[in-house]
Every structure is written in structure tokens, then in C-alpha cells.
């Protein structure tokens, strides 16, 4: 007769299974499970520490930590995507914060919707130069990059916004504003910081969600990140609109707060060869020192008495945040 497994073996097996399962849990679920025994409580604490050390969970080239000296929130939970996607109900959880495997190979199914089949890119070879047919400048700013239909590699110089977040950033808890995105190094003017990534929505769905978010915001303690960007013709008529919701699925750009003076970031719509839609990208509009908060203007201020109070602190602050008329 074989002897029963030792207590040590049972404990080891229990821990191995817990280490595989717990990184899939939300903070609420982790907190509930951590009440059940010391082992799970210790493991939950280690997962929380790993999560706070990198909001990007290795999707970006550099870690982007949460720093909080204001209250007890260690991090905000959301699903990470480095670029926009069309969400599906299957994408409901993401493995995040395993102490044993803190840098899993990120797996996201980048939808083929994004590619326009049959388009022709450049044929420069591995690396493009200023003669590249994909390169389009508007007001000195590159607005068209190489893309899926080109032969060049990701290392090509005309793909500046496709390499993820390459400047050091941190997410800092700010009095009255929740989290904010901050520079953790000097960033010169005109440099790419990050894309605004999240779920691409139809205007109908964006309107529906905005109403839900407005209601939740009234209850306090809820922060949404639904961005609407419009492109205008020289006649000032809007010709294109893109709705990106980073509230549930997004990237670090979801932490950028509003500033009434326009902030220190400018928004540029970048198109790339073969891609169906442009991407909303943030570039520094002036030199930014290490430790400065990054911000941009959320849009026209419509002074509504029920609008959120603005704490941007700029000398031209309107006192109320712009409300997007979606
Ligand atoms: C895209 S999120 C920015 C990140 C957010 N602070 C957080 O903690 O997740 C937008 C929300 O941040 C807050 N926020 C942004 N800018 C603000 C400002 N200037 N003053 C007060 N709250 C601000 C509002 O709650 C707003 O709905």
C-alpha cells in the first residue's frame, strides 16, 4: 500500500496551484481570498507588490510603477492593451502580478480588423530614410509612418510611435485627482510619449457608455477614461471621429489628467501604411522635467453646474472640467 502524500507535499501543491490562479483575480477577489489563510494572504500581498511595480505588466519596454504617498490605494485594476482593439467578452481577465513569473510573454490577439488588405507600403528594405514614400509631415510633424504593408522592420526610423513607451514614466496618486501620469526623466519637446489605447467604440456605444459613466461618477469614487477625438477639415467641419474607451481595457494614457491651459502634451493622429484607422498619439509640446505631471486638454469647457470640479491648478483654470458632448 502506498503511503499518503506528506503534509509538506500537500502544502507545496496547494501553493503551486495558488500561484497559477491568484494572478488572474481582481483586487476584490484577491482581498476576499486572502482572508482564508496565511499562505494566501502572503501570496496576495506579493501579487499586489508586483502589480504596483509595473502597471504595464511588461507590455511596455520599461516598467511604469504606481507611487502613492497620499492614501492606501496600491494600484488601479484594469486590463492592459498597448494598442487599440475591438473588445470581445472573452477578454475579461488578464494574468498580472505573479511573483514567480512577473514578466510573462504578453499575449493579446491584435485583431486583423486593423489591416486594410491589398494596400501597398514602401519598398525601402529593412530601414527607411527621408525618401521613404510612407513619410508624410504636417507642420513639421510626422503624421504617416511605415506599417503592416511595408517590408521594413520595427527598428525602422519611420515607426517612432510603434515601439511602445520608451520614456521613463510613473503613475502618482495626486490629492483630489486620483492617479496622474508623471515624467520620471527629462523629456525634450516633440518626443513621442504614448498612444491612447483602449476599446474602439461606435459613436452609439460611446454615447451609451458615457451616460453610464456620468451616473457612476455622480456617486463619486469612479473615474472613466473615454476619449473622443475628432479630425477637422480646413473648413472646420468635423470629418472623422474616433471613440476610445480605456476605462476597462487601456494603457498608461488612461492616467493622464486634464489641464485647462492645454497641458504639456499634444495629440496627433498618426496613420500607418496598411492600417485601417489612425492612432491617437501624445507628444511633448515643450521640455518636461523629471517629476512633472503630464497633461492635456480634454476639450472645450462647457460650463455645466454638474460638471466635475477641476483641480488642474493652472492659472487659467475654469474650475470645472470639460464634459465631452458625445
Ligand atoms: C482619464 S482619467 C485620468 C486618471 C484618473 N485621475 C485616475 O485616477 O484614473 C479622467 C478622470 O480623472 C480625473 N481628473 C482628470 N483631470 C482632472 C482635473 N484636472 N481635476 C480633477 N480631476 C481630474 C476625473 O475624475 C476624470 O474623470
UniProtKB/TrEMBL annotation:
It holds the Pfam family SET. GO terms for molecular function: metal ion binding; methyltransferase activity. Keywords: Chromosome, Metal-binding, Methyltransferase, S-adenosyl-L-methionine, Transferase, Zinc. Its main location: nucleus. It is found in: Chromosome. Residues 167-299 form the SET domain. One of its GO terms (cellular component) is chromosome. Gene3D superfamilies: SET domain. SMART domains: SET. One of its GO terms (biological process) is methylation. PANTHER family: HISTONE-LYSINE N-METHYLTRANSFERASE SET-23, HISTONE-LYSINE N-METHYLTRANSFERASE SUV39H. This is Histone-lysine N-methyltransferase SUVR3.
Amino acid at each position: 500500500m502506498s503511503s499518503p502524500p506528506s503534509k509538506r507535499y500537500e502544502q507545496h501543491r496547494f501553493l503551486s496551484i495558488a500561484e497559477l490562479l491568484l494572478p488572474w483575480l481582481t483586487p476584490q477577489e484577491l482581498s476576499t481570498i486572502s482572508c482564508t489563510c496565511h499562505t494566501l494572504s502572503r501570496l496576495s500581498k506579493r501579487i499586489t507588490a508586483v502589480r504596483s511595480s509595473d502597471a504595464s505588466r511588461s507590455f511596455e519596454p520599461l516598467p511604469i510603477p504606481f507611487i502613492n504617498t497620499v492614501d492606501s490605494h496600491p494600484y488601479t485594476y484594469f486590463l492592459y492593451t498597448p494598442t487599440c482593439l475591438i473588445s470581445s467578452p472573452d477578454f475579461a481577465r488578464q494574468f498580472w502580478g505573479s511573483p514567480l513569473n512577473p514578466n510573462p510573454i504578453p499575449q493579446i490577439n491584435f485583431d486583423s480588423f486593423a489591416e486594410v488588405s491589398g494596400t501597398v507600403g514602401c519598398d525601402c528594405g529593412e530601414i527607411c530614410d527621408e525618401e521613404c514614400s510612407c513619410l508624410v509631415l504636417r507642420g513639421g510633424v510626422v503624421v504617416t509612418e511605415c506599417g503592416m504593408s511595408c517590408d521594413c522592420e520595427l527598428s525602422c526610423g519611420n515607426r517612432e510611435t510603434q515601439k511602445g513607451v520608451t520614456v521613463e514614466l510613473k503613475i502618482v496618486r495626486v490629492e483630489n485627482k486620483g492617479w496622474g501620469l508623471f515624467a520620471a526623466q527629462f523629456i525634450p519637446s516633440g518626443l513621442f510619449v504614448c498612444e491612447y489605447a483602449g476599446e474602439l467604440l461606435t459613436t452609439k456605444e460611446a454615447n451609451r457608455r458615457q451616460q453610464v459613466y456620468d451616473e457612476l461618477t455622480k456617486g463619486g469614487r469612479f473615474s472613466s477614461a473615454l476619449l473622443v477625438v475628432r479630425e477637422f477639415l480646413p473648413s472646420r467641419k468635423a470629418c472623422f471621429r474616433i471613440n476610445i474607451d480605456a476605462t476597462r481595457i487601456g494603457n498608461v494614457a488612461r492616467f493622464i489628467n486634464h489641464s485647462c491651459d492645454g497641458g504639456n502634451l499634444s495629440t496627433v493622429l498618426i496613420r500607418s501604411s496598411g492600417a485601417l484607422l489612425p492612432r491617437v498619439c501624445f507628444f511633448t509640446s515643450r521640455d518636461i522635467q523629471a517629476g512633472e505631471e503630464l497633461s492635456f486638454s480634454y476639450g472645450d469647457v462647457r460650463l455645466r453646474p454638474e460638471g466635475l470640479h477641476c483641480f488642474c491648478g493652472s492659472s487659467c483654470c475654469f474650475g470645472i472640467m470639460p464634459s465631452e458632448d458625445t
